[in-house]
């Protein structure tokens, strides 16, 4: 990380012995890692496992902190004996697939590295997606690609939902960081501190750490760029499909109080939801006691219908301590090389499972209904274009005047070409998460992609994509001999277009000059639907999403 250069200390043998990383993982020189699954970290001895199928070493479910509800994380108490790091740890408690699962005590992480003797490897710390309400470190496991990127991969579980974010005044009884309500960010910062303290034991370079995340994890990464809490905690950043979204604290308090009020009435504390909401907005110790007494299962069930809308589950609060009150308009960024990667059809998954289309899409009837298909195509096309911009070019435009490090933008188009991937193009195209099948086998999206990634072209595209990541992790520059040049973004709007034919990769430098206004004009000019239907779709399907500020402003002005 950003610190003084390493100092090589030469001396007697006793000093050399003291410099060894630990008793179970002694090293003969600074570039060698003893490929052992038994290590000693700051909290005690651990034992991982070898994955011989992928030729990697894994240590799973390692506790990196503990935290009482709505308080800052604290260091793990040292354990005696050897911690079994061969199984995934608990996931953060959450509402997933209609059921509450996980634990309120789930601050753990996974470490995966090549089964080699190489030390001082680049480190990538990954934050999973799930709207900061669901998900786990297992989303992308790392085992199938760490050899390709030659890095140590760390994947983090952190608090989610109303347990990971809560802005209510009654909880502001701690430090300024705790009072921010951004508990998930406190967890992530603590995980990075753990990495700095321990990653050399796993053969990683603590001075070459990249923070990466997908979807909500990518938005968290973007938020850390403006957070004083994260200054110097990492050296590069990658946001996969994660734009710049923050919440106003006062508005968020109102939404949280509205969401929790029914529980207050159910428990007989107040007679009406109106009275309950007013009470929840006070600073009283009685409110704090009540909130801390609600079961985690009930809290995890709140606001589960957010569907990438901050108005339902607001988080990442502009509190003035963890996130500046001016948000991304701040003049002070944690200025590190930044990679922004997006699919070109980012809204397709959300369109397909929106209430308007979900049943017909799932049954297949949507594709036999010409009018309904036209509606789906409209929201998929324009929602995808706006979402793509928000994830990449619009984010770069927002920060570029205050940012000196290089920004690299990649736009994945694979899946949109009906001649190459007819089934995928008809349904999801280059969907939210399209990068993942290029990294992970088996893919989480296996039922979506079918055999679309089983071609020579996708194999080459995936290999090139991993090569770009490898070089970016190592140096902050994704370019290398044999790869199409990935130009850093400037006012000329350079992006790397990533695609493939059946038999070859189709990767080229391009320019994305679109603006949200351009897309709104195209929507207005679209004659595939009536004006009445377009307005209905704009205000019920596309409205209020991460990317839809331009749409919302249009109708607010009417």
From TrEMBL:
Cite the PROSITE patterns for this sequence: CARBOXYLESTERASE_B_1, PROKAR_LIPOPROTEIN
What highest taxon heads this organism's lineage?
A: Bacteria
Specify the enzyme's EC class, one word: hydrolase
Q: Which species is this record about?
A: Streptococcus gallolyticus
Query: Which Gene3D superfamilies does the record match to this protein?
Result: alpha/beta hydrolase (3.40.50.1820)
Family the entry assigns: Belongs to the type-B carboxylesterase/lipase family.
Q: Which InterPro entries match?
A: AB_hydrolase_fold (IPR029058), CarbesteraseB (IPR002018), Carboxylesterase_B_AS (IPR019826), Type-B_Carboxylest/Lipase (IPR050309)
Q: Which GO terms describe its molecular function?
A: hydrolase activity
What's this protein's name?
A: Carboxylic ester hydrolase
């Amino acid at each position: 990380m950003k610190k003084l250069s390493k100092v090589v200390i030469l001396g007697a043998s006793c000093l050399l012995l003291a410099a060894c990383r630990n008793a179970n993982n002694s090293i003969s020189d600074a570039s060698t890692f003893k490929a052992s699954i038994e290590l000693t970290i700051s909290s005690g001895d651990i034992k991982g496992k070898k994955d011989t199928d992928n030729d990697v070493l894994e240590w799973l479910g390692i506790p990196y902190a503990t935290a009482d509800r709505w308080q800052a994380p604290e260091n793990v108490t040292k354990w005696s004996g050897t911690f079994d790091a061969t199984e995934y740890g608990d996931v953060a408690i959450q509402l997933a697939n209609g059921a509450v699962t996980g634990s309120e005590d789930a601050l753990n992480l996974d470490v995966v590295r090549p089964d080699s003797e190489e030390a001082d490897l680049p480190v990538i710390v990954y934050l999973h997606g799930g709207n900061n309400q669901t998900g786990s470190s297992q989303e992308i496991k790392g085992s199938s690609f760490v050899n390709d990127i030659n890095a140590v991969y760390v994947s983090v579980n952190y608090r989610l939902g109303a347990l990971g974010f809560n802005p209510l005044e009654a909880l502001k009884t701690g430090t300024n960081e705790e009072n921010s309500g951004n508990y998930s960010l406190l967890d992530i910062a603590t995980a990075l501190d753990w990495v700095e303290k321990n990653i050399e034991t796993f053969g990683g370079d603590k001075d070459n750490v990249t923070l990466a995340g997908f979807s909500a994890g990518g938005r968290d990464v973007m938020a850390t760029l403006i957070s004083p809490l994260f200054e110097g905690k990492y050296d590069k950043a990658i946001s996969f499909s994660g734009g710049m979204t923050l919440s106003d604290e006062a508005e968020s308090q109102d939404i949280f109080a509205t969401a929790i009020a029914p529980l207050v009435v159910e428990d007989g504390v107040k007679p009406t939801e109106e009275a309950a909401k007013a009470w929840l907005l006070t600073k009283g110790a009685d409110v704090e006691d009540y909130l801390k007494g609600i079961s985690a299962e009930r809290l995890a069930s709140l606001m589960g219908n957010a569907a990438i809308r901050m108005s339902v589950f607001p988080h990442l609060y502009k509190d003035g301590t963890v996130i500046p009150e001016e948000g991304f308009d701040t003049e002070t960024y944690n200025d590190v090389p930044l990679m922004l990667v997006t699919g070109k059809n980012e809204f397709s998954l959300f369109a397909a499972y929106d209430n308007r289309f979900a049943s017909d899409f799932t049954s297949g009837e949507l594709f036999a209904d010409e009018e309904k298909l036209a509606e789906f195509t409209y929201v998929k096309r324009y929602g995808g274009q706006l979402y793509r911009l928000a994830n990449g070019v619009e984010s770069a435009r927002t920060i570029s005047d205050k940012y000196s490090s290089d920004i690299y933008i990649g736009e994945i188009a694979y899946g949109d070409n009906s001649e190459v991937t007819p089934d995928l193009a008809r349904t999801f195209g280059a969907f939210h998460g399209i990068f993942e099948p290029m990294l992970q086998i088996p893919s989480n999206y296996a039922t979506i992609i079918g055999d679309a990634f089983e071609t020579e072209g996708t194999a080459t595209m995936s290999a090139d994509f991993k090569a770009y990541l490898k070089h970016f992790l190592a140096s902050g520059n994704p370019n290398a001999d044999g790869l199409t040049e990935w130009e850093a973004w400037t006012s000329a709007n350079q992006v790397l277009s990533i695609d493939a034919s059946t038999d070859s990769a189709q990767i080229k430098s391009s320019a994305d000059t679109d603006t949200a206004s351009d897309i709104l004009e195209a929507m207005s000019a679209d004659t595939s639907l009536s004006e009445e239907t377009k307005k209905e779709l704009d205000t019920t399907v596309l409205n209020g999403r991460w990317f839809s500020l331009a749409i919302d402003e249009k109708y607010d002005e009417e």
